[in-house]
Design brief:
about 260 residues, 13 helices, three-stranded parallel beta sheet, four-stranded parallel beta sheet
Length: about 260
């Protein structure tokens, strides 16, 4: 277990959590505090720049990346409840600055300090709760492995292990759990017909498990899946995994009417 003395953690909130699902950010803070960390949320932070990067607007992305690097310069760890945003910072920022030695070094420094939250809790802190929490209502769960978290950040078993250790939850694995849901950032806007077919496949596999709740670690995927489920009339609750881990099931499921 990492020695946490004199080490500071900062939360990268992400645009989607800030704009559409603040409960994800609050759940992330709660989990990090339960793990014994003091958590800061720098006000200077903004989008990681991934939308601009994915459309080839590299000059604009560099401007965004510089602001993010400045915002998180003083923190030992930078934690994101998103494998996609964490992957952007960890793997793509250094590529952006290959021809700029100063910012290349600074981007690599930030990359080394950046973690996706479930990987950080399990792999770095070996997080275990001090006492067994009340746990979520007795429901059945399935899990979608988001592309960036899986392929760029190596996140697969970590959220499952945390769910099992904190709540005894066993995941009903869906077929093709590691196949893209069709969101893919700007892909869903450029190729909506293909995207729709992919998210329909994902939903059909999830419903086939009989699970009541689909969990995942990236809000982009979850918003896309939940939106399509509501348009189809599927009875499937969609949540970010940190909301369940932190026992913060107060908000309605993503895309559901507020309670």
């Amino acid at each position: 277990m990492q020695d946490k003395a004199n080490k500071t953690a900062a939360l990268f909130v992400t645009c989607l959590a800030d704009l559409f699902r603040p409960s994800v950010a609050f759940a992330a803070i709660k989990l990090l505090q339960q793990a014994g960390l003091a958590v800061c949320v720098p006000e200077l932070q903004t989008c990681c720049g991934q939308p601009a990067y994915n459309t080839g607007a590299y000059r604009e992305t560099r401007g965004i990346a510089r602001q993010v690097i400045e915002a998180f310069v003083d923190f030992h760890w930078v934690i994101a409840p998103s494998g996609s945003c964490a992957g952007m910072i960890k793997h793509h920022y250094p590529k952006l600055f290959q021809e700029d030695p100063e910012w290349a070094a600074r981007s690599r420094d930030l990359a080394e300090r950046t973690w996706e939250i479930t990987s950080f809790l399990r792999d770095v802190l070996q997080f275990q709760p001090r006492e067994l929490p009340s746990g979520p209502a007795a429901k059945s769960y399935t899990y979608h492995d988001a592309c960036a978290g899986l392929r760029e950040m190596g996140v697969r078993q970590q959220p499952r292990d945390l769910l099992r250790s904190l709540h005894g939850i066993e995941i009903r694995e869906l077929q093709q759990t590691d196949v893209c849901c069709g969101f893919g950032g700007t892909f869903c806007a450029r190729m909506p017909e293909i995207s729709e077919k992919m998210v329909d496949d994902k939903l059909n596999h999830a419903l086939a498990t009989g699970a009541e709740v689909l969990l995942g670690g990236d809000l982009g995927c979850l918003l896309s899946i939940a939106g399509r489920a509501r348009r189809r009339g599927d009875k499937l609750e969609v949540r970010h995994v940190v909301e369940v881990l932190a026992d913060m099931d107060g908000p309605a499921g993503i895309g559901d009417p507020q309670r």
